[in-house]
Amino acid sequence: MIFCTSSITVTAQETAQSPADMDIMTARLAILLSQKLSGKVMVGDFLQGEEDTYLGRFWQENLLGELTNQANRSYTLLAPGSQSQADYMISGNIIELGGMVRVYARLIRNSDSSVMSIVHVDIERNNFIDELLSPIIAGSGSTVRRDQYEPDSRLNPVTVQIGAGSLNRTIHANDQDWFKVVSGSAQHIIAETEGDLDTVMELYESVSGFKLQENDDGGRGSNARIRWSAEAGKEYILMVRGYSGETGAYSFMVNTFEIPDSGFEPNDTLETATRLILNNGEAVNALISGVDDVDWYQVEIPPAGGEITVYTQGDMDTLLALLDPDGTVLTEDDDSGSGYNAWITQTVRGGPLYIKISAYDDGGPYSLHIEFTENR
Q1: Is the pLDDT of residue 302 over 60?
Q2: Which residues, in sequence order, are CB contacts of 295 under 8 Å at separation 6+?
């Protein structure tokens, strides 16, 4: 059983911009604790959860140094790992509380596990402190720092305002970042990441928790991007993680976008397919509004038949299929074109031919190209 024989000592919220500021904090803490020490003392870990961080290591090593330099001390400091020989143990933990970090230090008497004193220091969060919150990974010379929005979770997401600019965040080891978006009106929304980190994004309904979409490389480079049609007053949750456990920095943003009126909609079924005239070199520009949207087109192949090439261009990952008038798939393709675009070259007979275009995991603008060579 653990007994606490003194009240909690609390210091006011501090601001630390440099190691020198931290030195002053640990010096004050050493003075408070040294007044209660005698015999053999060991300074243990200052952990954040179960993680060893640079901030925790800083406090441990600085506190040990400050206690060593105390004048007229009536205690002997033991090396780390000598807990069984110590009369007293000093250890602590680190907790992130929104815009500040709280560092606890506990003085424990080993003989009966009594807590002799508890001190906590509240430190205002800034870039310097966020850097020190990086976990120390064994065998690794570099780590990714936690960002100022941690801790966040599925039940505690970071609220993002549509059109408010980007949030700079990081993915550290075993990390997922969660965001909440509230759509005030029915509108088309695009959420995306930017940066060198290969990101994966998932979109959920806030209330039901149902996953609506997932995207890996729909944005620029290896960034994720999701577009969807939001309902008025509805909340949505987005999760961002690194692909295959990757860590690093990225920026996250949410904006609205307009669907251009191509004059083709509605063309969501074979029966409502947009009629196109075979005209080599002419592109059709349109947009898939999301994974549930499908665009259908019809071309009339001359009686002699021939070879048709159909392909898309743009940033969207397209799925392409050619079908006969009965809706039977003649051939289909995913990524045979440039980037994630689809490309089909097929010998076809005369008569109606249908082209179906959809998105693999996210909508977006595209251009449709059709080239035809008639049999002679």
Answers
A1: yes
A2: 264, 267, 268, 274, 286, 288, 356, 357, 358
